[in-house]
Each structure stands twice: as C-alpha cells, then as structure tokens.
Design brief:
heterodimer, A: 6-stranded mixed beta sheet, 4-stranded parallel beta sheet, B: alpha/beta, TIM Barrel, 9-stranded parallel beta sheet, 12 helices, globular, binds pyridoxal-5'-phosphate
Chain lengths: 402, 265
C-alpha cells in the first residue's frame, strides 16, 4: 500500500481541499510548513519532550481484569488517553500543532470545540506558549459543557458561543473557518479532529498516531503478540485513527470504529455518519456526511457533545470502503450503561464519547476466545460528563450494585 | 447560455461601463418576494443576476447572508426552486444572464450532469461555486461547457500569481474577485488597497474581472466599477430587503438597483 493521503490530499476519492479561494494560500503554507517540520529533528525532539514531560506520555495500557473475568471472553485492555494532561487524547494533537504554529510565526490561535475537550487542550497549549486563543463553541454545547467553558476561560482563552444553525460542533467549525478566512494572514486554525481540508486530516492523524504506536509496544510487552481487535469511538475520527493507523498494515488486527447512534439509527436523532450518511462535501473535505437527499447537512444528536459531528474524517471513509475497518453505532442508552459498568468494575469514569467504544468492546468480548485480546481506546475521562449523566440517571442511581 | 455572458462583457468593455450583478437569495424572505426582487433588479437595469441557493453551512458567508439563508431554508426552499425561478424570470421576458450560486455539496448531490442539463433547459447561463477549488475546476467546467454554461473561477487578495494565471486560462466569461480577505457582508468602507490591486490585476489578466464581497453603496459601486468589469452586491441588498415590508420589497430593490446602475454609468 502506498502512503495516504496522496500529494493532493486524497484517501481514494475522499479528502481534498474544498474551501474558498482565500484559504488556498493558507493551506499551501501549512502543507509546506508541516512537511518541513515532520522531518526536522528538533521539531520531533521538542514534541516528544512536551508529550512526555508536559502531558505525561506514554499513557498506560491497563489490563481490565475485572471486566475480562466478568465477560468471560477476550482479554480487555484500555489505552488510557484519559490520563493525559487535560484528560483526553486531544492534547497530543494540540501540542503538535502549536509547535507548528510557532514555527510558522503565528500569534493568534483559533479552534472549534464540541465537548470542549479540544477547546480546553487548545487553551492549555496557548497558555503554555503565550499565544492568544479564541475558541468557537456552539451555544448548545456551551450549555451542555459549562464546566469546560469555565476551564477555557481560566486558561485565558476567549470563548465565542455560536448561535447559527444547530448550535453545535458543525456550526462552531463553520464559524472558525469564517474567522480564518477573515484573519488568515496572522491566524493559525488549530483543528481538533481528522476533519477539514487537507492537510489537516493527515496532520492530526500524524500527531495522534502516538496512541497506536505506544499501544502496539505495550501490547507486545504484555502479551507477546499483537492485539486481535481495536475499538475506538469516532466523531471526526482522531482518537480512532490515532489508535488504528500504526496497525493498518497488520491485516490480522481487526478495527472497529463506533459512532453515536443517539436515540437509535432508525430515528432521526443520531450521529451515525458512516452508517447512515452519503459521500458529500462538508468543511472542505469530501467524505461521508449526514445530509438530506438534496445535500443540506442534517441535524444530529448524541448524548455526548463530542460525537455529534455530521461528517467524518476522509481516511475513515476510505478504511470503511476498503473494508479495512468496520464502523458500527451505539446508542445513548448503551453508552450510559457502559459508563456505569466501567465505573463500578474498574474504578474508571470514562468520557461519554469513550463509553461508546467500551460498550462495543463489551458486546464483542464474550464472543472472542480467551486467548484473544482487545484494545479499547479510552479517549478521555468522564468528569466533564458527570452533569449530563446526573441529568439522565437522576434518582434512578442506586449505589452498592455491580 | 454562456454566450450571453461573453457578449455582455465585450459590450461593457467597449462602452467602458462596468456590469452590475446583484445577488438574490432564493426564497428570502419568501419565494414570491425573491422572484419579485429578481425581476425588479432586472427591470432597474441590472446586467444579470447571481441567484443564491441557500445551504445549511455557508462557510463563505457573513451574518447577513447566513440569516437570509436560514429564513429561506425554514420556508422549505428546495434546490429545484432555483430552476423554477429561472423559468419564471424568463417567462417574464427578461433576457439578462442568470448565474446560479451554490455551495458544492448541493450540486454534488444533484449530480453535475443533471445540474447542467436542467440549468440549460431552464435558460440559465452558468454557475458560481465558492468552495470548488481551481484544482477541481476543469472536470466540472467540461460538463457545463457541453451545455454552453459557464463556470466562474474565484480569485482573492491572497491568490498567488500562479493561481491568478490558472484562473485566467479557464476561458471563463469573467473572474469573481473577492475584494476582501473575509466573508460576505456589507462594510462601511472598501478594502483600502482595492483599487490599486484591481489595476494591477487587470493589467495581467485577459479575462474580465467582477468584484464582489463588501460593496455596499451605489457610490462604492461607482468607484469599483471604474477599475473593474463589474460589481456584485449581495448583503447590502439583503439588508434593504430585511428592512422593508414584503409588499414593498420589489420597489425597494428596484430603486436601489437603479441607483447602482446610474452610479456605474
Ligand atoms: C474524550 C473524547 N473522545 C472522543 C472524541 C471524538 O473526537 P475524535 O473522533 O476526533 O476522536 C472527543 C471529542 O470531543 C472527546 O472529547
């Protein structure tokens, strides 16, 4: 397999740069800066230093002994991205991109955020490097993730609530793109997932692949062999591609991406882009998109603010079409269930996003042999979601039961 | 047919008079009112129209057009309505060029071949797609050319000389020059270096240049018209419509457009 994307930014038919002309120069500048940086010893060394000394990498690969015993099948491992500084995988990408932005001499950083995890990670690295930070966030998400809004402000970022469209991540991203078109000469747009125009899906993947590279080494150390199955939740797809990418050539390693089924894929309230969407253009990239037959972008729903993007990274679209990875969806209810199971059996509160992956892993594990292994990407910790879970479970929650 | 467009620019250059291409947001505030506005603009002497199809995620548009788009979509405006409008305008006897402005995904979902076919049958002249990059231009241009339709390339203040050249050699009837680094929207003043940039640009180009984004008043249009082959006004016109009772929208659009046409004389 030749390396993807190709020089025009395509993974098969997916990807590309479908943006207004004003931004083409910025994308070219970014591509050039990145191709220099990625081969630069100092850049690589700096990034490694920040990942270890600031974010706390490598993150552990935790053997979930209790779950493994309970589900009586595959040996379940958790890749602990929740233990990163700021509590999610997002910081891996932010550290990489902020070093890039600095090399490019940019003084102002903008970002979009859904759950607020990417906003917090961006605000964090901007504080660290002394750069101005403005974050776009849908008004609905500002409400759902009030704690993260406050965290961003504490870190010195300005948060712009976005009131257009569905007031969620997609609209935040549209607004960030508009800001970028306007301030392209001095502003760096720090995209938080493998979405948007080339070279972003490639850059974000490259900065997240550390997840899979570590997991590979850790698994070989723990079990003396590669894992049989990788499971990760997918929104734009950054934590999933980060885990999957270093295993793509290992054909025996199966990969499952989990999207949000919300109230169920038979209802209109879900965000199962690859299951229910069609190829189309959103935010500069050609990939699967949830849309009306005419091509208007659809409204989505998920209990987790970090999974309701109606698009998906182009590399995932390609992995799906080539059948290298399989994509399924998990409902709000099922994710909530997995959230509680992980909490009570392993003492870990996962992010609601990650809970989708946990559910899928627990579903498959009993059908696998006891010598087989699963790695679930625990992309983030659940503290940010405690309020949402409280709203949903409320008084139904009884302690003491496992 | 694109021939009408080439013709219009040739005669404009001969008369040294810039064309005026107002932007009408399809279905804003209603289909009937947008049709009425379109006809009023043409009656006032507009050289042609840019008929904007509302899209849920208009990344190149500022607040004014976003709002108009949202209102139009809430009315249930469909892509097919743009063809209906072109048909209605032609039925009313107007011959000026009509360009469909749409974001790429809508055309992708309809299919380029079908889009070209229907547009040609209805009497449209071409398309403007703000998120279609020059890199992807030729394969779609070929489809439209088969039906004698034009595809309009964009250039912006950030376009490098090689990109400007690439746009120039597409054989389009005009290039759409985005006058500001930014989104659509009325602005109090023109971009400071606009007239100088236009002069430089036109010296290098064989294709006529039409300026859009950020032109708000007849006076500004007059200034820009002296340095270009045409002007597009969108947000300022929408703002006028938003402040006018639906029953009076036609009159308001006509009166504004007449002022712009006079300023371009
Ligand atoms: C903890 C966590 N996991 C996963 C995601 C989904 O993003 P991606 O698909 O890019 O990994 C988010 C997004 O906000 C998140 O916060």
């Amino acid at each position: 397999m030749t390396s993807l994307p190709n020089s025009h930014g395509y993974f098969g038919p997916y990807g590309g740069q479908y943006v207004p002309e004003t931004l083409m120069v910025a994308l070219r500048e970014l591509s050039q800066a990145y191709s220099k940086a990625r081969n630069d010893r100092k850049f690589k060394r700096d990034l490694r230093t920040y990942l270890t000394e600031y974010s706390g990498r490598p993150t552990p690969l935790t053997f979930a002994a209790n779950l493994t015993a309970k589900y009586k099948g595959a040996r379940i491992y958790l890749k602990r991205e929740d233990l990163n500084h700021t509590g999610a995988h997002k910081i891996n990408n932010c550290l990489g991109q902020i070093l890039l932005a600095k090399r490019m001499g940019k003084k102002r950083i903008i970002a979009e955020t859904g759950a607020g995890q990417h906003g917090v990670a961006t605000a964090t690295v901007c504080a660290l490097f002394g750069l101005r930070c403005e974050v776009y966030m849908g008004e609905e998400d500002v409400r759902r993730q009030a704690l993260n809004v406050f965290r961003m402000k504490l870190l010195g970022a300005q948060v712009h609530p976005v009131t257009s469209g569905t007031r969620t991540l997609k609209d935040a991203m549209s607004e960030a793109i508009r800001d970028w078109v306007t301030n392209v000469r001095n502003t760096y747009y720090l995209i938080g997932s493998t979405a948007g125009p080339h070279p972003y899906p490639m850059i974000v993947r490259d900065f997240q692949r550390v997840i899979g590279e570590e997991a590979r080494r850790q698994m070989i150390k723990a079990e003396g062999k590669l894992p049989d199955l990788l499971v990760a939740c997918v929104n734009g797809g950054s934590n999933a591609i980060g885990l999957f990418y270093p295993f793509i050539k290992d054909k025996k390693v199966k990969m499952v991406g989990v999207e949000a089924a919300g109230d169920g894929v038979k209802t209109k309230r879900h965000a199962a882009t690859m299951e229910k969407g069609k190829p189309g253009v959103l935010h500069g990239s050609f990939s699967y998109v949830l849309q009306s037959p005419e091509g208007q972008i659809a409204e989505t729903h998920s209990i987790s603010a970090g999974l309701d993007y109606p698009g998906v990274g182009p590399e995932h679209a390609w992995l799906k079409d080539t059948k290298r990875a399989v994509y399924v969806s998990v409902t709000d209810q099922q994710a909530l269930e997995a959230f509680q199971i992980l909490a009570r059996n392993e003492g870990i509160l996962p992010a609601l996003e990650s809970s989708h992956a946990v559910y899928q892993a627990l579903k498959i594990a009993p059908r696998m042999s006891k010598s087989s292994t699963i790695i679930v990407n625990l992309s983030g910790r659940g503290d940010k979601d405690v309020n949402t879970v409280l709203e949903r479970l409320g008084s139904n929650l009884t302690g003491g039961k496992r | 047919m694109s021939r009408a467009l080439y013709q219009a620019f040739r005669s404009a250059r001969a008369k040294r008079r810039a064309l005026f291409l107002p932007y009408i947001c399809l279905g804003y505030p209603t289909y009937a009112a947008s049709l009425q506005s379109a006809k009023a603009a043409l009656k006032a002497g507009a050289s042609g129209l840019e008929l904007g199809v509302p899209f849920s995620d208009p990344i190149a548009d500022g607040p004014t057009l976003q709002k108009a788009t949202q209102i139009s979509l809430n009315q249930g405006t469909k892509f097919a309505d743009v063809f209906r409008m072109i048909g209605d305008i032609r039925k009313a006897g107007f011959k000026q060029p009509l360009l469909v402005m749409s974001y790429l995904n809508l055309v992708e979902q309809m299919g380029w071949f079908r889009f070209a076919e229907v547009l040609a049958i209805k009497g449209g002249d071409g398309a403007i797609i703000p998120d279609l990059p020059l890199e992807q231009f030729s394969k779609f241009r070929r489809i439209l050319i088969q039906k004698n339709l034009a595809l309009i390339p964009f250039i912006s203040p950030t376009s490098s000389p090689d990109r400007v050249k690439k746009a120039d050699v597409q054989g389009a009837p005009f290039l759409y020059y985005v006058s500001v680094t930014g989104v659509t929207g009325a602005r109090k003043t023109l971009a400071p270096d606009l007239l100088v940039s236009l002069k430089n640009l036109r010296g290098k180009l064989k294709t006529p240049v039409v300026v859009g984004f950020g032109i708000s008043t007849p006076a500004q249009a007059g200034l820009v018209g002296k340095a270009s082959d045409g002007v597009i006004i969108a947000s300022a016109l929408i703002q006028i419509m938003s402040k006018t009772k639906v029953s009076k929208i036609g009159k308001a659009v006509e009166s504004f457009c007449r002022k712009v046409v006079n300023a371009l004389r």
